[in-house]
Amino acid sequence: MLATFLVDGYAAGLWTTERKKRTATLALKPFAPLTKTAAGDLAVEGEKLLRFVEEDADTYAIQIVD
Q1: Which of 1, 26, 39, 51 is 20 to 30 A from 12 in CA distance terms?
Q2: Cα 1 to Cα 52: distance, rounded to the nearest angstrom
Q3: What confidence tens digit (pLDDT) does each residue in 22-47 have?
């Protein structure tokens, strides 16, 4: 099953995490363009997810990819 993220209760895209050295990155691949509000909310929640999954990373990054 692919990891999906929700916006307003609907599946809005896929996400993956990647770790390179001390940096953890969350890549969000939306099905359609995101509003600025949705992108901001996803960044906040995404960083919480990264801090949980990769708690020993020094740096956290969120990327929205096409």
Answers
A1: 51
A2: 21
A3: 999 999 999 999 999 999 999 999 99
